[in-house]
Design goal:
Layout lengths: L3 H6 L2 H6 L41 E11 L1 E6 L5 E5 L4 E4 L23 E6 L3 H4 L1 E10 L2 E13 L5 E11 L14 E3 L5 E4 L6 H4 L11 E5 L21 E4 L4 E6 L5 E5 L6 E4 L38 E3 L5 E6 L12 E5 L4 E8 L2 E9 L3 E7 L5 E7 L4 E9 L3
Length: about 400
């Protein structure tokens, strides 16, 4: 059975029959700014501007490492050290006390212009025995570039450096395009070993409509095996001219993804001027972009017909207007912050902090924020239960790793 928000989205009439939910009326929402699209109304109660929790934990912030090259992602190694990727194309090992190793050798060339670079990192499910890692990057190609996924064996040395052996590109988002925006991308392993890959639709008007085209790899979630092959139970394997790697479609630019406690994939994608979306991508489901979206184009004009619901597309579980500009996402499971147990932590580039969304079933019921006064590119839960946020200063080309812990009373 499809979730209630999917059913509500099947026709604009259903949304119109719901009580009008004036966005600005939820005074307890953490968001106090006016929406970019004030005439747009949520399709169901709680779809935006959820109330804050009655009590929130006090958070202490400490810098683990500062003045690093501009980072894009962080992944914890089993021994507690951190593996980080730099936008420019390097991988480093960072110790818990902030010591940064030399760049890992053996990485391929990346196209780091604009929003490109070395992007996400993921450890293979059998990493402890295989040493295999996966990474996504904007790959230079004939005709432009595109998001690709590679795997390699990490061979660290005693000085927190090392090499990547057997680097192999296992998957390429196609078609290539000569642009510098909306590469995505996050890598998430499912409990069954499948690898979810999120990408963008390359931003430009001439490419964005391909998010609706199952013969194109733009604006999709992919589901592949560790060798890059499509899974046989993917939804479009029997559809003529469709890419068999596609899991879901109609996405804009997904730079946040994580599993929930049931092992299901959730994503947060960048909307236009307003309209960041929290989704739970399901097999074969169309999430609407660019035919359906909340928010406006950067010109202030509507996107397309300016509609927020359309039969055949699914509503987001939650949306933000104004945007948070999501990047990085983790499910909180730990002892440091019991108030956040099973909540999603989302990095905010524009909101400059960590956004916490609490769910009841598949609906957001509360939202809170931890301001950090810095763009948050990635967020992870450490083995100690603390939250680790990767911040960035694009103008200076630098990053820091911050540790968020509970303030002592």
């Amino acid at each position: 059975m499809r979730p209630i928000q999917s059913l509500l989205a099947s026709t604009a009439l259903c949304a119109a029959l719901l009580p009008a939910l004036a966005i600005g009326q939820q005074s307890s929402s953490v968001e106090t700014q006016a929406p970019n699209a004030p005439n747009q109304q949520p399709a169901f109660e709680g779809q935006t501007r959820a109330p804050q929790p009655p009590e929130a934990p006090q958070v202490e912030t400490a810098a683990i490492a500062e003045d690093l090259p501009q980072l894009w992602s962080l992944e914890f190694l089993p021994d507690g050290r951190m593996l980080v990727s730099t936008k420019a194309g390097d991988i480093h090992i960072v110790t818990p006390d902030g010591e940064v190793g030399e760049p890992i050798a053996g990485l391929p060339e990346v196209d780091a212009r604009g929003q490109g670079g070395l992007l996400d990192l993921a450890l293979a499910p059998d990493f402890e025995s295989s040493g295999r890692i996966f990474f996504s990057f904007s790959e230079p190609r004939d005709g432009g570039n595109g998001t690709s996924v590679a795997s390699a064996v990490l061979s660290p040395d005693d000085a927190n450096g090392g090499t990547l052996d057997g680097v192999t590109v296992i998957f390429q988002q196609m078609p290539a395009y000569n642009g510098d925006k909306h590469f995505g991308s996050r890598l998430v392993f499912a409990p069954d070993g499948a690898l979810f890959v999120t990408v963008g639709e390359r931003s430009d008007v001439e490419t964005r409509n391909q998010a609706q085209d199952v013969s194109s790899g733009l604006g999709k979630v992919f589901r592949i095996d560790v060798d890059g092959a499509p899974l046989s139970d993917n939804p479009f394997t029997a559809t003529e001219n469709a890419l068999p790697e596609i899991w879901s479609l109609g996405h804009r630019n997904m730079q946040a993804a994580a599993l929930d406690g049931e092992g299901r994939l959730w994503t947060v994608e960048h909307g236009p001027m307003g309209g960041d979306e929290l989704n739970r991508p399901e097999a074969g489901v169309n999430y609407g972009w660019p035919e359906v979206t909340y928010g406006l184009d950067y010109s202030g004009e509507p996107i397309g017909d300016g509609i927020t619901a359309l039969e055949g597309t699914t509503q987001p579980v939650y949306y933000w207007d104004p945007v948070i500009a999501p990047s990085g996402m983790a499910l909180y499971e730990g002892s440091e912050f019991p108030e956040w147990q099973d909540a999603f932590l989302i990095g905010g580039l524009v909101s400059e902090g960590v956004v916490i969304v609490h769910l009841d079933g598949d609906q957001v019921v509360q939202e809170e924020r931890v301001p950090l006064e810095a763009r948050v590119r990635d967020v992870k839960v450490g083995p100690d239960g603390a939250v680790y946020a990767v911040t960035e200063n694009p103008d200076a080309g630098t990053s820091s790793i911050l540790r968020l812990s509970k303030a002592s009373s």
